[in-house]
Amino acid sequence: MTQLFFEQLLNGLQLGMFLFLVSAGLTLVFGFMNIINLAHGSLFMIGAYAVAVLTNLTGSFFVGLILSFPVVAAFALVIELLIIRPLYHRDHLDQVLATFGLILFFNEGVSIVFGRTPLFLNVPEALSGAIQITETFSYPLYRITIIAVGLMVAAILWFIIVKTRTGMRIRAGTTNPEMIRALGVNIQALNTTIFVVGALFAGLAGGLSGPLTSVEVGMGENLLILSFVCIVIGGIGSIRGALLGALTVGLVDTLGRAFLPDLLGQFLDPATANGIGAALSSMSVYLLMIIVLIFKPTGLFPVARAA
Amino acid sequence: MKLKTLLAATALSALASVSFAQDAVKIGMITTLSGPAGYLGTDVRDGFLLAIEEEGGTLGGVPVEVIVEDDGLKPENGRAIAERFLERDEVEIMTGVIFSNIAPVVAPLTLRAGRFYISPNSGPSQFAGKACHENYFVASWQNDTLHESAGIAASNLGYKNAYILAPNYQAGKDALAGFKRFFTGDIVEETYTQLGQTDYAAEIAKIRAAQPEMVFQFLPGGMGINFMKQYDQAGLRDEIPLVLAAPSADINILRAVGASMLGVQNTSHWNHDLDNPANIAFVASFEETYGRSPTVYASQGYDTARLISSALRATGGAVTADMDGFRAALRAADFEAVRGPFAFNTNNHPIQNWYSREVVEIDGEFRNRTTGIIVENHADAYVGECKM
Q: Which part of the chain is the Leucine-binding protein domain (chain B) (predicted)?
């Protein structure tokens, strides 16, 4: 039992890390640029497709993953220049409409180019198999890799935001965009950079998810909703918030799915417990969000904002 | 290959409009062409149009005009298209519906308008039982039978207990009920997952802890691909075998999942290697026309068109002009189905064989190989409730 609990904890941690990769870019773009980018899920999909195609071309997942970065960056650059830039000073509804249009555009585009059959992408040989943690317990190496990559990205982001001059500007821009422009910082260039970096995280997450999930049209959309939950719980614009929000969501979701039906089974008959458990566990994440919003409307780690 | 497919599609659509001749029987096809599940409708359509092409733009010597529209997997779209087809285009036969949440919208509209409804895929339980109708036909299967056959196969393979899981929605619940109806072993645990779930680590950990003899899952489309990849990753494929139903193991899924599906047992009413003349000709003709292998959905689209063809030939092209005649001709099912023996039960649902299949690797490609017949002339469980 303790071993199962530990395994589910690890599963939750892994899902959280994965959600963090998706949320990091979303929170950066939302927090700093004040742009709601629904097309973040499309960038996730583009990343996955790029990795799948390049992996099948080059025969190596790692080469495919690295070569996918310039592809995703190019898409992000074009999206930023053509679509996002004119929307900075429009209200959120316009941004939602435009980026929702992008979702439809990319979904149809991908199905025209690749068809509707999901692409093949498997775990690379070097990362397949499991690591023996205790004598009776092993955990898939690839999932551990995702945890490691998540931690690495968190560390890099922390370093950039807290220790570098660019990071200082990003923080300043999140707090008071007018002032930073008045001080002569080229906010346009900074915006583009942040958008592309955010897209790269989404693409990386998409590429990494390819071997575990179906590389198909619209694959990013379910995750997009979950990552919005993560950044709302964590506090919009805060990387630390995104990390903790994602970990919380990952753990609550996994542990809910794993143990709620059994827990309810203690005092309900199995069929009812199963039904209610399944319903409750799919709601658990959203219930959590409601509770957080009631007690801390700006999220757990709000970014200070000028009025 | 792409170009060839494109040309073939253009030729077919040209053909569909050429057959605009005066007495053309109008067939409305409401199907799912967009989104992740779009390949189901695409294959039903292509199989259907192939049969028409083979007969030189006719079905049973009667010119036909097929109008195809995409429902986008949304019941409200299905309703709007159905109303247009019935009122403006005056289609006499409605077909194409893939999903069981669209059928309950389109079928009653069609039947109320006094036209024929012939399903190439979805066969929800209500229309097989209490809500059955003399002008409602299913040329594919009643939904439950897909999973009943998996339950029978699992019992035949000697499994004493099973862990079963499906998404938490109507078709998922029906699937588990269908599996349990004929499975003689015990159910270790029944798990309902979220619709559209991507990560199955929690469920897989529970399966590992429960140590069942086998696992049955009905996770259609992308969900199944996610599950299979992660199940293999967790090292369980060799430890705890799976028995699946046809929708979880079509050729597109095998291609996307790859070696992780190798050796998986599954059941279907059709397979590309079924040894009957109609099927051999169909597979060759489909591959030549479209440059890809047919899925089970393509075979269903083809069989549906061949069924309509046999009925049109019998009535000389009369559909709504001779309702009783056309209905009787459909019921006779006087055609060579690519799936083998085929007959209609009293509720207008098929009585047919179910085959066991195993995923094997042939020349670097993953395909299903038919390993035997699980159950012959299988009828659905609701036929008794149908008073017609």
A: 25-360
